[in-house]
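> tool_call: predict_assembly(chains=two)
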Amino acid sequence: MFEYALSSLIFIPVIGFIVVMFLPKDNFGLIRWTSALFSFVPFVISVWLTYDYFILHSSSAAMVYVEGPFTWIPALNAQYFLGVDGISVPMLFLTGLLGFLSILASFNIVKRVKEYFAFFLLLIAGMMGVFCALDFFLFYVFWEVMLVPMYFLIGIWGGPRKEYAAIKFFLYTLFGSIFMLVAILVLYFTSEPHTLNMLTLIQTAPAFSRSLQIMCFAFFFIAFAIKVPVWPFHTWLPDAHVEAPTAVSVILAGVLLKMGTYGMLRISWPMFPEALRYFAVPIALLGLIAIIYGALVSMAQKDLKKLVAYSSVSHMGYCMLALGAYSSVTALAGCMFQMVSHGLITGALFLLVGVLYDRAHTREIAAFGGLGVKIPVYTGLMVLFSMASLGLPGMSGFVSEFMVFIGAFSHPGFMVITALAVLGVVLTAGYMLRMVQRVFLGEFNLAKWGGLTEINFREIVTVAPLAILTIAIGVYPAPLSNLMRATLENLINLMAR
Amino acid sequence: MEMPAYNLRIIIPEVFLFIWATLVILLDLGTGRKNTKSLGWTAMFGLLITGVLLCVTWGGITFNNMYTSDALSVLFKVIFLGAAFMAIGSSFGILTDKIKNHRGEYIGLILYSTVGMMFLASSSELISLYIGLELTTIPLFILAAFFKDDRLSVEAGLKYFVVGAFSSAILLYGLSLLYGLTGTTDIVQMKINLSLLFLSYGKIGPGLILAIVMIIAGIGFKLALVPFHMWAPDVYQGSPTPITGFLSVGSKAAGIIAFSRIFVNGLIAFADSVMKPLDWGIIVAVMAAAAMIWGNLAAIRQDNIKRMLAFSSIAQIGYIMVGMVSASELGIASIGYYMFLYLFANMGAFAAATFFGDRTGSDKITRYAGLSQSSPAFAACLSVFMLSLAGIPPMGGFAAKYLVFAAGIQAGYTWLVILGLLMAVVSLYYYANVVKVMYFAPSESIFDLKLSFTARLVLAIAVVGVIIFGVYPEPIIKFALDSATAFAF
């Protein structure tokens, strides 16, 4: 791997942002392909990084490809400090992949094209930064920087209630972030010598007083839980998802939500083990509520996109349950698997819903029926991902949920919670199958949907990689689990302090 | 009689700017009040020269410790000069169209006020501090009422004058009490005498409480600190927009440095809860909390951008006061850095409002609809200012808030910091609203603002300042930290 690989992941999209800003406004083709290039290069680098990490570094838990720490603002002890390990590499891969695919999926945008792609590239840069940063100040900057392009992307290109959804998303997330900021400042002034270095703080923070740990843990939790989103902080999500344009929904579900769980694994879990033991059961309960509640609400949805959005709440609930069962490597691996798998599956589902919406201009489930006759390829893909989402064996969703359940069941005292959580699988099957039945099976309304066209080549290109990966991970999950095993085992040791 | 040897080198910038201001007025008269642009450029050039002189001559004490030219004063003087520069730079439209007969006076008064601020920043003694404050505000009374035919402007001037005179009297009364207690007007000597008094008697009577309350009230009026803020929205709305910007940055910075010299230096010993009821820290903390709450909540409902920015600046003073109550090296440094970034973000926002007002004659936020399409660069600049004021990275406003709140946490004011951050979330709503109107709302009428060269220059300076000092704040923070050593903590 070359030097400054991580920086290039962050700054190539930033350069792309600047380049796109200077392109002529009306040359759509040029803007689209330039943006595709500037997201393709980071994607290639992220694939290479994943491969390189797997071959060379996956046997140890150490941070690799480290850059810095370079002095940035010495007066604040803020540093430019990047590095990755087994939990950030899969996330970078996911960001690279979904970023590139979303740009491809956005080629049909015709409104204010230049601004759209510019903001999108900035968004990718911010997400990459979050998964690489090892300095709190830097982490916080990336965490916030990403909100601005997201605000614009939802607000300008969104659906009918876009303005409401955009500001709700912005305010909600910022509300969470400020608690994180307080916690960061408190940690900074408590540590001696004052530091914002996450790795140092992971070593030293468990020695801080119990009340301080609990406070910091709770503050970080609010920030991360809003991002995940954990019930009851989830209400921004359906609005944002439904109003956002397709590609933005993909990024929201595929990457943004994972930043919450990633933050927990990276920061609060290893940093405050004592507080973690104190909060583990409530966290698992929140996960359980999210699983059941999300699934039940999904069942009641009439809008296809809203159904997928609420299914995200349910699916991220499995991650929270696994995070509650902090003593089990299997559970944490299940959490990581679920993060990757949900990113792939839900990303694909949003893309597919977008494909249908572009043609039919409605997402109402009841409006459709028997579409399998007219658009078989599309139907096949949609059914494939619905099955993946409900956890059909052979696909990644099954592997991740199975690991979560096994891991959580083995954690002391979690038997009942886990048993109840398994009900979620049944409910998921319920709403997914019902959706498939009502949209694709049954009688076809020729008069209404006779003009519907099949999914085109570009759209297939955007979902095909996701389908391949979903099946690949489902059939042979070993590489992914080997990739992060050492890191997770180290995490378990840190939490056991 | 022998003249004592004064070190006149360090007052060269102030003397120069004073002479230059007079020359500008004479130039206007000499050219038969015809020239607009050359007048503005002359003044801006004079400000640049003053800045250079300041860099060359600073460092030292003169007039028997009355006048100190330390790093802190230099930082604030740069802010004053920058504010005056941008205020004049954004006044070209007004000078051409609205002010026909008194252009020289308009510019000259801005410069005189700047001279007053610069004197104030260097005063280490109560009398000269008071005189500096008066020299700052008296030109501003006239400037606020400069649109003689506009009822709102005249009202603004009158209101500002009455409140200003009233608060000056209160302040002076407070200062005289302080003199009566300590027998000196020198701030450092006052600090020593107060501690001697305290050590010999164990407590200091209600005189000091009265002095503290009166000085807080007096400067609080100038700063528009809640509950002394009632005048601000009307004055801000009525005054010519560049003057509003100058008021909100320059004169506030002047108030801030006066406040910090008296309290964080002279009365530093009483910033401790042990000193109750003489503890000024808690009074200021409560006022800061009130300012953050009231300023932000009231700003939400404004549909006029000047009134919105008026309430926003009330809230911003609240944030700055968080740094003040910390009464530490980091606190003073955070105030310096905050004001420095505020200069770019707020002057930029007012400049943008000025240019929009010049073209459309309106200050309504809803009129900004669709600007992202018709004037993309303008919309992008104003968005950057709004996001910076809201404290979103990577804009400079974020690092500024971070520093202020860090100082607050360090000093143990965690409740104030959490409140401030919550209010920062609230503030995002109305700052983002401006962005929303420009970017999300469909364009009502497509028109190009056709910005003049000076308008572009001012906006460019402000935007570059906000972004560069946001991404790489180190030089300014370091200078601010060095300047904080002016006070012995």
